[in-house]
Amino acid sequence: MTATLSRPAADDQPTIFRPLPRWFPAATVVASAAVSALLQLMIGAGIVRFLLLTAVIFTLVLYVASRNQEGSRRATDRFVTSLVTSSFLLAMLPLASLTITVITRGVARFDLAFFTTDMLGVVGAGGGGKAAIIGTFIITGLATVISVPVGLLTAIYLVEYGRGRLARSITFMVDVMTGIPSIVAGLFAYALFVIFFGASVRLGIGGAIALSVLMTPVVVRSSEEMLKLVPAELREASYALGVPKYRTILKVVLPAAAAGIATGITISIARVIGETAPLLLITGSQRGVNWNPFDGRMTTLPVYAFENFTQPGTSGAGIDRAWTAALVLMIIVLGLNLVARLIARFFAPKGAR
Amino acid sequence: MTSPTTALTPQPPPPRVGGQAPQRRGDRVFAGLSLGAGVLILLTLAAVALFLITEGYPALVADKADLPYGISFWAYVGPVVFGTLLAAAVALLFAFPMSIAIALYISHYAPRRVARSLGYVVDLLAAIPSLVYGLWGVGVLAPYLVPQYGWLGRNLAWLPFFTDNASVTGRTLLTGGLVLAVMILPIMTAVNREVFLQTPTLHEEAALALGATRWEMVRMTVIPYGRSGIVSGAMLGLGRALGETIAILTVVSANPQTVSFVLNTSDNPSTIAANIAAKFPESTGLGLNALIASGLVLFVITFAVNYAARAVVARRAEFDGAAG
Fold first, then answer.
1. Distance CA A278, CA A282 (A)
2. Helix or strand or coil: residue B129?
3. Per-residue pLDDT tens for B93-139?
4. Is the pLDDT reported for residue B60 higher than 70?
5. What does the alpha-carbon distance between residue B182 and residue B188 come to, in Å, rounded to a whole number?
6. Closest CB to A160 among B18, B138, B243
7. Which pLDDT does position B3 carry in this prediction?
8. What is the C-alpha separation between B297 and B236, in angstroms, rounded?
9. pLDDT value, residue B22
10. Is A94 in a helix, a strand, or coil?
11. In the prediction, which pLDDT does B202 show?
12. Distance of residue A294 Cα from the nearest chain B Cα, in angstroms
């Protein structure tokens, strides 16, 4: 809408202002792509180079043409428009490259064996990420079990009960806590467990504690937003019927916000399931499956990928396993994001938002 | 036994959405539980600082000779603090203008119908695990940049940032900074987009009515209105970049004692976080204490940056789109 306001109609301006024809930018894109392709033949080809060159030629041609025909103000406007647009397209390049790379390199070992074998006795090729997948689900599950009650109750406190200095400082500290570096969370878990278990402690539960330090503030923030969206009339109607406050929260407020809260929790799980650094410190890794988070090291997918990548062995089979682990991780994370959006779309209460 | 008159006197409105309701024992239990959860969060944050101090303190007071490399703790942590700041600065240098441009594209330039999905695509960048970024940085970006580093070395070696003895693996601090830039783009873009969208429509329309072009409108209304949001978004991104571990650890071939501004060499400074992750498994005793103390330094730095960012946000009372 704003765009049409700023662009005067061509036929209203008979002599003083003649804008470039509407087809001109499109034609310039095609022409600059052609010129850029020709130049590629001379200086060597590359997709990124081609796109960058096309963008530069397009911007320059359009700027010069517009400056001659429409004046400097409109030329600047067109210049910024193409700058902003190409910045956006440029930012999409890493995403595209990353997705393509992870898929093409990850499929090499994306087989049944990857999901059914661990690394016990594996030297060189073969082996799989069974232990890592199990470890990831156990540790992330435990972190969720810790974070969700604490985070949800805190959000309820902030929205329904909290006022005054304590609530303000909790809000502020939750915000600051979202910025804690993940490695610091890992160090914290280590420093906590080393007191009880002595030096070089490695435990799955420690990883869960570290992850919940990272996860809880995300749960608080998203649940808080969702609880605030519940209309005050719903609460007041419940109070008017003589329902106590805690039952109002449990039976009226929470169900109304349930879809949004579930979305937030799913996103927060996706956020921590790919964490590597804290798990590298406190859970370590081992070759076989460990079902017990309270006893000894556990392997997780990110750590598994990292170690296979940095110590691939002489045959380089570790590199393939690392990419496949990264692919599995990407699928889990994007799947969780998709689930979150589906929850938000299909379970949202009617009339909200 | 309340008289009808008192019931009719206007009650002060409830201070918050909570309002008043009958008090029962369940109420007290539930209120206590939720208060406890809130306090637990404060305690956790305090505990993080406390445990890092207790485990890091021995390294602060230890004799030089017992510490790694036989140097004092501050000489030990200095180079990695430098590397942390340098990598974050490189990341911010690229990510700051890009995040503004992308946010502007989504909020004011893209066609309305696709703007929402474009925002979602940018958010997807935030969802990708940092390890995957690291693998991508080593596997794709670093080899791609090797010829570029050679070119920079041949042509720009007179600048203090480049050497003609360029890295042949591409695993430089500049590559690491670029990967960091991609990683912090989503959060910065999200904050910027949020404040740009909150620009009062009247301001925008007034500018357009005066004959401003779209860029002039953006420059006169959207950017000034969003300035504090842009600053706090940049600081949140900076906080992320300072604390990122695994991408730097995978991408940069680093030496924790190097201090150098040269960006295309194979002898790079390390960062606090990457140094901890690299050295932790093989460290014992005071070496471990020194690593934990360096983690404390990182905690203090990121805490300060995030604190400042949130303080800027908090001054904008109506703005609440900064949650990561």
1. 6
2. coil
3. 999 999 999 999 999 998 888 888 888 888 788 888 999 999 999 99
4. yes
5. 10
6. B18
7. 43
8. 18
9. 52
10. helix
11. 92
12. 20
Q: With contacts defined as CB-CB under 8 Å, which chain A residues touch B55? A: 187, 190-191, 194
In chain B the first and final C-alpha atoms are separated, in Å, by 52
Q: Under a CB-based contact definition with an 8 Å cutoff, are residues A321 and A109 in contact?
A: yes
pTM equals 0.85
Across B196-219, average pLDDT: 91
Of B15, B139, B217, the CB nearest to A6: B217
Count CB-CB contacts under 10 A for residue A225: 18
Radius of gyration of chain A measured on its C-alpha atoms = 28
Q: Which residues of chain A have pLDDT under 50?
A: 1-4, 13-14, 352-353
Please tell me the distance from the alpha carbon of residue B46 to that of residue B9, in angstroms, as a whole number: 46
Is A295 an 8 Å CB contact of chain B?
no
* Position B166, amino acid: A
- Residues of chain B positioned with their CB less than 8 A from the CB of A77: 213-216
Identify all chain B residues contacting A305, using CB atoms and an 8 Å cutoff: 131, 135
Q: Tell me the pLDDT tens digit for each residue of B265-291.
A: 888 899 999 999 999 888 888 888 999
Q: What are phi and psi of A243, to 5 degrees?
A: -80, 135
Can you tell me the distance from the alpha carbon of B123 to that of A220, in angstroms, rounded to the nearest whole number?
A: 19
Taking alpha carbons only, the member of B54, B55, B73, B53 closest to residue B63 is B73
A 309-338 residues inside an 8 A Cβ radius of B = 309-310, 322-323, 326, 329-330, 333-334, 337
Query: Are B77 and B293 in contact, with CB atoms under 8 Å apart?
Result: yes
- Residues of chain A with Cβ-Cβ distance to B208 below 8 Å are 2, 5-6
CA B80 distance to own-chain centroid: 18
End-to-end CA separation in angstroms for chain A: 23
CA A134 to chain centre: 22
Does the distance separating the beta carbons of A244 and B23 come in below 8 Å? yes
Rg (CA), chain B: 25
Residue in chain A closest to B283 (alpha carbons) equals A200
Distance CA B267, CA A23 (A): 52
**Per-residue pLDDT, B271:** 93
pLDDT digits (tens, 9 = 90+) for A169-219: 898 888 888 888 999 999 999 989 888 888 788 888 999 999 999 999 999
The pLDDT mean for chain B works out to 84
* Nearest by Cα to A293 from A74, A147, A162, A138: A138
Phi, psi angles (nearest 5°) of residue A52: -60, -45
Q: How far apart are CA A113 and CA A116, in angstroms?
A: 5
Residue B229 has pLDDT above 90, yes or no: no
Geometric angle at alpha carbon A247, from A243 and A248, rounded to 5°: 70
The H-or-E segment that residue A146 falls in is helix A130-156
B43: chain A residues, CB-CB within 8 Å: none
Q: Which residues in B lie closer than 8 A to residue A87 (C-beta atoms)?
A: 97-98, 101-102, 105
Q: What distances in angstroms separate CA B241 from CA A181, B179, B302, one per listed residue?
A: 9, 10, 9
Which pLDDT score, from 0 to 100, does residue A34 have? 87
CA distance B45 to chain A (A): 7
Q: Is the dihedral of CA A339, A343, A346, A351 positive or negative?
A: negative
B268 by DSSP, 3-state: which? strand
B102: closest chain A residue by CA: A88
